[in-house]
């Protein structure tokens, strides 16, 4: 909702508008994290894995420009042409009254799978690229046809699975006898059953099935040791290197990926130059879409915005930054040496190991629980620990 119409307004944002968007987002971030209202917005964004709103709006504007307006866009200083990506085809290609391919497709798990007179398809994606393949077994359970296609690394495994299915149909389409094809991709079969699936390859397969009623599909569970499925799997993996080059338009999922990479890169630049949230920057130097799932007491402790005397004095809520025990009441003091919180103490780290000490707490469930109990105690015993508030 907040990014509605971003293609109109997101490309030339002033600093004033960016601050306005940040203030809108801030209310939600405080609610999500339970942090003190003085905690920096930049820290809350990184902790929750929610990027600055203006960067999200810019990403949405580029995606709309590319997919709806069919115009080239700049991503990380590279021009991306819309003709290199597959277009989404909405609506019915086949009239609903005539779309009757469901009897040709079964997604049930079978007790036994045949091998004779059966075709098996598979797709594979590795660091080297993407492969697509099928193999056909005759009535003696011997492979008499193999096909391997080598796709671009930017193509995804879903496209590879669908391409193998399409090529298998094309191989069998002129045969008069019934033929069964066994993919191990349940999502591919479910997409083919969807009459309004937007994927171009799915549309091609639906049209082929509509014209070839003697071709049937069954789903075979992957990696159960079946010779047909394992053979197709090996072929698909080998196709990444040895397959016949096959050109497919890139999926829109790849576009989303590079737009997200650009967003993360710009987000990191903003995070690195920010003067706020230094304790969190040390802990999380590189922002990501990952929600760190910190409890609100962890947010208080690691941002140093919580029921600590050092914080209260900083914001003029206490006349002194000293704990009632006499030492400066910062988070490290309460976690390692304050007599009031002795039941939850951690071993005190050296200055050189402070960052590793904090990360070790976050990695250990028991340590996190101990930290929760300590901060809860501080919140419940504010006057005892920190003394009376400032006048």
Automatic annotation (TrEMBL):
<dbReference type="InterPro" id="IPR012337">
    <property type="entry name" value="RNaseH-like_sf"/>
</dbReference>
<dbReference type="Pfam" id="PF00075">
    <property type="entry name" value="RNase_H"/>
</dbReference>
<dbReference type="GO" id="GO:0004523">
    <property type="term" value="F:RNA-DNA hybrid ribonuclease activity"/>
</dbReference>
<protein>
    <recommendedName>
        <fullName>RNase H type-1 domain-containing protein</fullName>
    </recommendedName>
</protein>
<dbReference type="GO" id="GO:0003676">
    <property type="term" value="F:nucleic acid binding"/>
</dbReference>
<dbReference type="InterPro" id="IPR002156">
    <property type="entry name" value="RNaseH_domain"/>
</dbReference>
<feature type="domain" description="RNase H type-1">
    <location>
        <begin position="113"/>
        <end position="241"/>
    </location>
</feature>
<dbReference type="InterPro" id="IPR036397">
    <property type="entry name" value="RNaseH_sf"/>
</dbReference>
């Amino acid at each position: 909702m907040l990014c509605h119409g971003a293609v109109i307004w997101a490309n030339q944002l002033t600093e004033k508008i960016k601050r306005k968007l940040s203030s809108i987002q801030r209310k939600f971030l405080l609610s999500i994290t339970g942090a003190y209202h003085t905690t920096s917005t930049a820290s809350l964004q990184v902790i929750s894995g929610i990027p600055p709103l203006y960067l999200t709006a810019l990403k949405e504007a580029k995606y709309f420009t590319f997919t709806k307006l069919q115009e080239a866009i700049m991503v990380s200083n590279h021009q991306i042409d819309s003709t290199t990506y597959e277009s989404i085809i909405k609506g019915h290609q086949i009239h609903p009254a005539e779309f009757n391919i469901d009897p040709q497709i079964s997604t049930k798990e079978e007790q036994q799978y045949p091998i004779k007179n059966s075709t098996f398809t598979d797709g594979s994606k590795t660091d080297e690229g993407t492969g697509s393949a099928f193999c056909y077994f005759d009535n003696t359970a011997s492979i008499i046809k193999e096909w391997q296609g080598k796709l671009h690394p930017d193509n995804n495994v879903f496209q590879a699975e669908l391409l193998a299915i399409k090529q298998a149909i094309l191989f069998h389409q002129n045969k008069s006898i019934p033929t069964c094809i066994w993919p191990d991709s349940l999502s591919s079969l479910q997409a083919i059953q969807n009459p309004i699936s937007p994927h171009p390859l799915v549309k091609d397969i639906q049209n082929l099935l509509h014209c070839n009623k003697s071709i049937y599909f069954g789903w075979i569970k992957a990696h159960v040791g079946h010779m047909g499925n394992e053979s197709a799997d090996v072929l698909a993996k080998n196709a990444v290197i040895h397959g016949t080059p096959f050109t497919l338009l890139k999926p829109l999922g790849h576009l989303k990926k590079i737009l997200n990479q650009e967003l993360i890169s710009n987000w990191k630049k903003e995070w690195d130059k920010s003067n706020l949230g230094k304790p969190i920057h040390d802990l999380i130097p590189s922002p990501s879409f990952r929600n760190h799932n910190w409890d609100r007491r962890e947010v208080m402790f690691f941002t140093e915005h919580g029921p600590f005397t050092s914080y209260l004095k900083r914001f003029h809520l206490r006349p002194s930054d000293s704990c009632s025990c006499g030492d400066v009441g910062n988070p490290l003091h309460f976690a390692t040496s304050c007599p009031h919180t002795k039941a939850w103490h951690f071993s005190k780290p050296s200055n050189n190991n402070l960052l590793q000490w904090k990360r070790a707490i976050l990695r250990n469930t028991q340590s996190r629980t101990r930290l929760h109990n300590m901060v809860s105690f501080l919140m419940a015993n504010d006057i005892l620990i920190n003394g009376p508030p400032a006048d």
